[in-house]
Amino acid sequence: MKISCLRTALTAAVSNASRAVSAKSAIPALEGVLIKAQGEKLNISGYNLEIGITSDIDATIQQPGEVVVSARLFLDIVRRLPEEIVTIETDERLITYIICGKAEFQIVGMPSIEYPDLPTFEKTNSFKIDVKTLREMIRQTVYAVSDNESKPVYMGSLYELTNGMLRIVAIDGFRMAIRSETVDCDSVTDFIVPGKTQNEVLKLLTDDDEQAEIIIGQRHITYCVKNYKVISRLIEGTFLDYKTTIPNEFKTELVINTRKLIDSVERMSLLDNERVKSPVRCKLSNDEIKLSCASAVGRANDEISVTIAGEPLEIGFNNRYMLDALRNADADEVRIKFNSPVSPIVIEPVEGDSFLYIVVPVRISNEI
To answer: What does the alpha-carbon distance between residue 97 and residue 116 come to, in Å, rounded to a whole number?
Structure first.
């Protein structure tokens, strides 16, 4: 193999592919990246048997070939090369020569036959979506994915496609996040994507006006973003019938400036003790929200004037769960609905239904 390419493009491709590389593996090749030179493209792949990230970059290919090199070492080298044009060459012993300007490296390569094949699957569905929209949908829901390995199905987000609507749902037992957008797809299907996969995809998504393609199979999914592909297993299992958990009626409701409420809850959080969690107490009455938090280090109180419709209420909530929902709302104002001190708190936009967040309340004592 002998190729030449731009250092910046190579660095970006290796950096992204390396995120899917195993730090330690019984298969030595999985600690490396697979480099394939064919046609007019150089393909860089990383794979850990769960997630694969692959990228094609432009290159001048004088001699095609394949080699596996240490991901960590190769990335460290290309990041520090002095010039823009990099030449990579391998000999019959798979010694890989990396030449850039007057800098030259020789590293030991491994045969590509030792590298497991990335999954291939038959497409059952696909659709396209704006890169920016997909980024916002993932960002605004993936925070609520569970990290509890005893319930693997909730370690991913449910993707629902229904008559031109894509809905992403994440739930961890204490909160739920739902984000909806219209897409150009008339299919009706659903599947569960691991949270880890979505976090890797999120790092590749930008503000560009380009489109991403999502290809779905029976057990795998591929996100195609620019010159990158992220391939992942889907999570098998039955997701919660989340619609039944959303309350239909509410006794108390208010519309509030999101930033103002975030600031107030953050002030209460200053007294939160990591060892003993103290809920934020919220009292709604007389067009006023009274927030308080008491912990081993002290007590905090705050008040916000706001128009409240319905019955007075006192409720407690976990400050971090509430802040996660408010920060991901991306709206100047939100509508918050309550039913009772033990019923879920619902946060939604003032207009439309692009998102819906649920925070499960925390029981509080009657002490003031």
So the answer is: 24
- The answer to whether residues 317 and 330 touch, using CB atoms and an 8 Å cutoff, is no
Q: pLDDT tens across 282-335, in order? A: 999 999 999 999 888 899 999 999 999 999 999 999 999 999 999 999 899 999
| Residue 341: Cβ-neighbour burial (10 angstroms; 0-12, 13-18, 19+) | middle
For 162, how many CA atoms within 13 A lie in the half-sphere containing its CB? 7
> Rounded mean pLDDT of 129-133?
95
Give the three-state DSSP class for 309.
strand
Is 338 in a helix, a strand, or coil?
Answer: strand
Q: Which two tokens stand for residue 85?
A: 């044009």
**Cα–Cα distance measured from residue 246 to residue 266, given in angstroms and rounded to the nearest whole number:** 26
Please report, for residues 22, 279, 294, 303, 366, the alpha-carbon distance to residue 288 in angstroms, rounded to integers and kept in the order given. 53, 19, 20, 7, 19
How far apart CA 221 and CA 214 sit, in angstroms, is 7
> What is the C-alpha to C-alpha distance for residues 265 and 318, in angstroms, rounded to an integer?
10
3-state secondary structure 211-241: EEEEEECCCEEEEEECCEEEEEECCCCCCCC
Mean pLDDT for the stretch of residues 76-91: 96
Angle in degrees, CA 140, 142, 146, rounded to 5: 140
CA-based torsion, 323, 325, 329, 333: positive or negative? negative
- Contact of 21 with 48, CB cutoff 8 Å: yes
- The residue among 352, 301, 305, 302 whose CA lies nearest residue 329 is 352
Residue 344 carries which DSSP code? P
**pLDDT digits 0-9 by tens, 219-275:** 999 999 999 999 999 999 999 999 999 999 999 999 999 999 999 999 999 987 666
| pLDDT, tens only, 289-301 | 999 998 888 999 9
Residue 368 has pLDDT above 50, yes or no: no
Q: What is the CA radius of gyration of the chain?
A: 25
User: What distance in Å separates the CA atoms of residue 94 and residue 260, rounded to the nearest whole number?
Assistant: 61
